[in-house]
Amino acid sequence: MRLLIVDDGHYIVEYLKHLLDWSKFGIEHIETTTNSIEAKELLNQNHIDILITDIRMPEVSGIDLLHHVHEKKLNTKVIFLSGYSQFDYAQQAIRLGALDYLLKPVDKEDMEKAMRQVIKNIAEKPPKTPVAEKKIDGLGYLLSVISGPSPLRYDHSTLDTALRNEHFCFFHVSGARGKDEMMLKDHNGGRDFIWITPSAITGIIPESNTETVASSVDSISFSEPFEFSQKHAVRHIFYHFFFNENIGARDFTMLSASSALPKLELGEWEQTRKNILKNFAKLTVKKQKLLYLLEFINLLYSTTDKIQSAEVADWIFNQLSEPNTALQSILQSLTQLDRSAKFSNQNIVHTIQAYISNHISDCLSLEDLGKIVHLHPVYLSKFYKQETGENLSSYISSKRLEKASKLLIDSNLHVLDISHLVGYKKPQYFIKLFKDQYGITPYQYRRQQIK
Predict the structure, then answer these.
(1) Do residues 297 and 153 make contact, with C-beta atoms less than 8 angstroms apart?
(2) Does the keyword Magnesium apply (predicted)?
């Protein structure tokens, strides 16, 4: 299960993260953030089972996050924290579906009690989230099954559930014709599980359709059947079918002990290229090279959308059988990414800033800004700080307040209206930020400037 901890206090987040042995409650992955706007993005993009959040935060409150959970029909269970003991907050939280309400400072015993209640609730009400299978990234899903975990991969647990108990086979067709491609697409269960490279068509097909397809597509070969839920078996079948290599759990253990994957930092592509070249040189056995490169391809594909799925499919199904050849292709792409980053980073910053200026009254979520410049929302924050030395949220706030100061002088609009025009739905919060920035309230600023 996945846990998300949200509080605008960094110390509190770190305290909660280490308060319990979360693994005892089945928590395998913990996300934390002090940015409540970012919390929405994490809820949208990751299957979060449990959310522990402060009930009162600037811009997006814990109550807002709970509303978001309901609106998006997420299965996330929510525990609220607060330094405020007013009963009306507790009433509102419980009425909206929070499972518990804890006062700060949080006691370990109280948190354990709350977690036991949450786990019991999850066990009693298993999630029933519908899955739009046709919209999935089939290549990303396959990589999530045959590789180790990567930091920003979207969660596929609902798809795991949808595909449970169904048997599939890998297939390969050399020199395929157009009608073969159509036949395979018609019989792959409507899923994005077909990859076309210059020399072949490869993919995944329901076992129940293999006999029909075999009678119509010449020279097609199938792997033995598998279930996606049996990930070790899928890995073994994948490597044996495509590369004629027998891979076991011990091989993954040996790889992780001898050649750690490089840490990817946005824009540091040249350093990443050097690291992968150095690590690859240590490997002497072909199957270890295959494992290492596929793990790195997975990490790369799940971290940046600058690498297209067609290019990744070509690496895996066309080039990876010769690891040294595949390595050169991957290194070339990293060099291109590095060059592109150097030329485009400033343009990305300008694009973000121009969009903010033109949409100052909008929500300006990390997800929306990330789509504009093709960056993952989490990496967008890191990228902007790296390039400008300033937090993106701070920049947005400063531009909003700058716009507000001009409106206070150049218009007769009420402060409430100005607050909304610059993107703040809560006037009290706007007034607080304005006073923090200018040392006086908006009303005082207007009187002072007009004199």
Answers:
(1) no
(2) no
| 26 SS3 class | coil
pLDDT, mean of residues 21-40: 87
Cβ-Cβ contacts under 8 Å for 337 (sequence gap 6 or more): 269, 304, 306, 307
Residue 163: exposure state from Cβ atoms within 10 A (0-12, 13-18, ≥19): buried
Token pair for 215: 């009678």
Contact 436, 394 (CB under 8 A): no
Supply the angle between the helices 231-243 and 138-146 in degrees, to the nearest 10: 100
**Amino acid code (one letter) for 368:** D
Q: Which residues pair with 6 in a beta bridge?
A: 33, 53
Q: Which two tokens stand for residue 334?
A: 């990293």
Beta strand 200-206 pairing with 220-222: unpaired
Give tens-digit pLDDT for 343-365.
567 788 888 998 998 888 888 88
Amino acid letter at 440? I
Model pLDDT, residue 283? 86
**Mean confidence (pLDDT) of the chain:** 82
Sign of CA dihedral 359, 67, 13, 154: negative
The DSSP bridge pattern shows strands 2-6 and 50-54 to be parallel
Residue 387, strand partner residues: none
Instruction: Assess whether the previous peptide bond of 206 is cis (omega < 30° from 0).
Output: no
Model confidence, pTM: 0.49
User: Which residue has 């814990």 as its token pair?
Assistant: 62
Domains in the chain with CATH codes? 2-124 (3.40.50.2300), 133-244 (no CATH), 252-340 (no CATH), 394-450 (1.10.10.60)
Tokens 């297209």 map to which residue?
308
In the structure encoding, which two tokens stand for residue 432, read together?
A: 């607080």
Better-scored residue on pLDDT, 178 or 422: 422
pLDDT digits 0-9 by tens, 367-380: 888 888 777 777 78
Residue 340, both tokens? 């592109």
268 exposed, middle or buried (CB, 10 Å; 0-12, 13-18, 19+)? middle
Cβ neighbours, 10 Å, residue 448: 12
Distance from CA of residue 365 to its chain's centroid? Answer: 15
